């Protein structure tokens, strides 16, 4: 991943600041950077969102396609994740440089989102055992400035909120041959319930304290971080430790508590914002990501 | 992964016009069963002009819509522009094409919908907009910023399009009102949809039903007849009794075909029995079956050539085809129908079924005549099409009395369940039945020969006159103007596509050149001219009329290799020794200057006249000598010389009526030209196949199956002669030997019979076939290169050859074997139809001839002996007719048919053999004006029982399944 070089003196400076709840950019330990969200930015997807968090820029597009349900769960649809690390974000990603990171990120996203607790996968079923909707979630890293997971999770949640799946219904003739029929009204579509979709809060252990939304510089000062996915009710759905260092049980507990608190606080304004944006309808002035 | 696009943006185009980008989104089903979201960019602009002469705001250089758009109408006394909606264009295209209807705005929304729903109507409306006098203007409302609308939530696509049409009409109304000189000019919306009309009126628009408007045109009441009947009107016409079972919807049909409960096939009505039809079901591979349908209920409103879905009955209900001739010609219009009891002969039972749905209607306008209703002042009449396989059609007209005795065209509009006959509307009056021009028009229409004048779009691709040879042409072409080239053609030929030369080289060898008009220089691939020519496929020669494949400027002028003018040519030049062996072949684009255009007779005279020794004559003599050697070689290889009784009419120069008939005679020079054309075709075929083994357009002539020759062998056997058919060579030799001293015409008769045994020669694409052999010419490979003015195949061959010699560039369709193969199918179809049309034209002129001649006695030969009839050929007229010994109503004489001979013995008194000489009287039977016949009756051998009245049907109308397959080279 994109890293910055930090000198020992800088490290001490950052660590001392965190100890006093005063970070280099002036934030407190549990503060996020400025965040911008816009949905419906890519017209040829079924749902899309763009999130910028500090200088981290993420674009998510969701395509719904008809596929076959997995044999173990015949009455559910499923999600597929693909993370593309654009060489725009950092030259390290050039060629196949970003592949490893991409796979790691998509595996984590798969764990966090693709389960029936976060999204009602049954609603994606068209015909049990035969047809279901598969949501291809494509994540594009446009710029890396730390805290990719949080930004990605917010973008995915926003994109899922924005997703409109065309309504289909199965017609069956007397021989039992099933045929998928498509509504010819483009407005006739299905929305997803994103209430339970979790957000990821990554906590970075710096010295004896931990911070949320670490910048690259702060990240360099930390040995380990903890990724927690939290629903709007404060339920933790997934915990993962990242980084080489180790964490003692006490601080894991402390960090989990912080994560729950921060995560809960993150959901409410996010949903409010998304609702508000949608209520603008066609009058909304689209910005896009070239702005 | 994504493509970036701003949602809204303004883009400045050149000319300083501001355009706005929007995206159009829709979802569609993919073939694999998935669902795909499609997003298209859509730009809106401000510089789309309204096209009206009145408008000062729009900067249109040449406005189409007139200021004084006045039509005599009760409803709209003011000048007005019409805006028809989609259904009006689709159903009332016949009205819109009328010269009276002018100043019409065709909206893009309408055009797109029409294109989607009916390509033929789309083409017709496009052609109408191209015509300057029609003042039709296409307004691209979907790209105009003020008239573009987005589909709203809960709005169906049809409602959205209707709204778009209203918005555009509203815009026009407001836009024109701004013009200072608008006067009373108004915009009138034509729509038959009540909801749409109501909404339009709410918006303050003038909207009328199409019928309402047309009926208001006081100046032209006859237009009303051409209105297509819409569903509203149908209820009035017929009772409510349902006569037919309902057609299944397409989705059910498709599912049924998939699961095998229904079969899909082409509906073929029986010519003889209107209650019977077959459906030809093509399955994968060569496995195809025919399903028999009997009874009106089971035919269920299918019309000849429709693609239908049929359901098979269980085996117990299968029936045999009836052998009865039944014609639906009762004058009354009763709704009841007595069905005949099906014939039950277990050995002849055929799969039987019923039509459950129509997959595709193949309705075209039909020619025919009106049966006037017996009730005076009735407006509903039945129309009898010329083609017996088409049911009678009910039309509404007020001019029945003027249309009686006329050939008219009628289009079918629909066939409701409660109507015995389909409903249709009058399209056009062709003229009096029996009239020469009318009948020619009828036979062109019935044989699907495209014969409309070339459209403006096609003509626009013609070279600009005056045309001359440019410096560039000189650079890339071989200059052969100094050569002594001449052309030899039939008299009166204006489309000369070949010319020849022959000269002695310094090394003692001969140089022979065949120069073919370079049509592909003028017709560039893909443009409207090319497409039109490809669709026409061939020039059709009728008696006294020629229907050109390319416009006359090309066919009779720029491409015609006339004498003493410089013309572009594609030359094939050989170096030969005096034994006519080819030493060297060269192809080049060239410029020639023909020194003489000769007729066959003139050329023959020059060759024979020893006193003439000019260059042209010397050249002709050289050619003639070589041609004889070439012909000898070809015949030695097994090429067949066949014959068919071809006739030429001597036309009266003023009335264009035939005054005399004459069978074509062949001169040496005919075969001289033919020999070199064959040689050029073969050389070119080799060259293009060598260069493009996958996509060369070639012509093949398959060897006929041996059983085809049975009749020929039997015929020869009856005179103790043997015909060997193991190879073309053996056949040719045995035909040559089959000569009877006392019967000079015998050999010709044999050759006529042999021609009937042959298969049809066809075009094909080399990549799609493996058998290239041309049986009749005994050549392993063959193509058509020498007549590009009159055959489209030759244009393709020219293009291929031009690419092969680096004289021209290629294009994708030329190298696509599938596209070429479908082109070949069209060309084969057009050639076949052209031949039928030609025969029908000869038949009609023969009738005219006999009409003028009265009753004639002529000598003829028996060509075929059938179970109940003999077919007689009269060599003098090339006329073939049938003498029946049976009649449907009366018991006929006792007949004894022996299929071995074949012979027919009548009443044990006289036995007819094949090739017997007989005498017949010929007269014209005009009792059925639509189907005039030549009547033949035996005079010699005379016997009382032969004189059965009304026994003959002669000169069969050209039937598609006619066995008279002429060897077409």
From TrEMBL, chain A:
Transmembrane segments: none annotated. The keyword Acetylation applies. One of its GO terms (molecular function) is mRNA 3'-UTR AU-rich region binding. Keywords: Acetylation, Cytoplasm, Exosome, Nucleus, RNA-binding, rRNA processing. Residues 32-166, 196-261 form the Exoribonuclease phosphorolytic domain. InterPro entries: ExoRNase_PH_dom1, ExoRNase_PH_dom2, ExoRNase_PH_dom2_sf, Exosome_comp_Rrp42_subfam, PNPase/RNase_PH_dom_sf, Ribosomal_Su5_D2-typ_SF. GO terms for biological process: exonucleolytic trimming to generate mature 3'-end of 5.8S rRNA from tricistronic rRNA transcript (SSU-rRNA, 5.8S rRNA, LSU-rRNA); nuclear mRNA surveillance; nuclear polyadenylation-dependent rRNA catabolic process; rRNA catabolic process; TRAMP-dependent tRNA surveillance pathway; U1 snRNA 3'-end processing; U4 snRNA 3'-end processing; U5 snRNA 3'-end processing. One of its GO terms (cellular component) is cytoplasmic exosome (RNase complex). Coiled coil: none annotated. It is found in: Cytoplasm; Nucleus, Nucleolus. Belongs to the RNase PH family. Component of the RNA exosome core complex (Exo-9), composed of EXOSC1, EXOSC2, EXOSC3, EXOSC4, EXOSC5, EXOSC6, EXOSC7, EXOSC8 and EXOSC9; within the complex interacts with EXOSC2 and EXOSC4. The catalytically inactive RNA exosome core complex (Exo-9) associates with the catalytic subunit EXOSC10/RRP6. Exo-9 may associate with DIS3 to form the nucleolar exosome complex, or DIS3L to form the cytoplasmic exosome complex. Exo-9 is formed by a hexameric base ring consisting of the heterodimers EXOSC4-EXOSC9, EXOSC5-EXOSC8 and EXOSC6-EXOSC7, and a cap ring consisting of EXOSC1, EXOSC2 and EXOSC3. This is Exosome component 7.
Automatic annotation (TrEMBL), chain B:
CDD domains: PIN_Rrp44-like (cd09862). Residues 477-807 form the RNB domain. It comes from the Eukaryota. Gene3D superfamilies: 2.40.50.690, 2.40.50.700, 5'-nuclease, Nucleic acid-binding proteins. The keyword Hydrolase applies. PROSITE patterns: RIBONUCLEASE_II (PS01175). Residues 80-198 form the PIN domain. The keyword Cell division does not apply. GO terms for biological process: CUT catabolic process; nuclear mRNA surveillance of mRNA 3'-end processing; rRNA catabolic process; rRNA processing. Pfam families: OB_Dis3, PIN_4, RNB, Rrp44_CSD1, Rrp44_S1. Residues 324-348 are annotated as: Disordered. Transmembrane segments: none annotated. It is found in: Cytoplasm; Nucleus, Nucleolus; Nucleus, Nucleoplasm. GO terms for molecular function: 3'-5'-RNA exonuclease activity; endonuclease activity; RNA binding. Keywords: Acetylation, Cytoplasm, Endonuclease, Exonuclease, Exosome, Hydrolase, Magnesium, Manganese, Nuclease, Nucleus, Phosphoprotein, RNA-binding, rRNA processing. One of its GO terms (cellular component) is nucleolus. Its cofactor is Mg(2+); Mn(2+). Component of the RNA exosome complex; within the complex interacts with EXOSC4, EXOSC7 and EXOSC9 of the exosome core complex (Exo-9). The catalytically inactive RNA exosome core complex (Exo-9) associates with the catalytic subunit EXOSC10/RRP6. Exo-9 may associate with DIS3 to form the nucleolar exosome complex, or DIS3L to form the cytoplasmic exosome complex. Exo-9 is formed by a hexameric base ring consisting of the heterodimers EXOSC4-EXOSC9, EXOSC5-EXOSC8 and EXOSC6-EXOSC7, and a cap ring consisting of EXOSC1, EXOSC2 and EXOSC3; DIS3 associates with the base ring of Exo-9. Belongs to the RNR ribonuclease family. This is Exosome complex exonuclease RRP44. The lineage of its organism: Eukaryota, Metazoa, Chordata, Craniata, Vertebrata.
